[in-house]
Amino acid sequence: MTIRMDIVLAGQRVKQWRWRACVAGNAWGLR
Q1: DSSP letter assigned to residue 1
Q2: pLDDT band per the 50, 70, 90 thresholds, residue 27
Q3: pTM for this one?
């Protein structure tokens, strides 16, 4: 149970990190 929860949380963090990276990349591209 705890291991699965950790994997899910890690996956969400990776998604958020990728999303932030994309937003930052777009911002730099516009600038």
Answers
A1: -
A2: confident
A3: 0.50
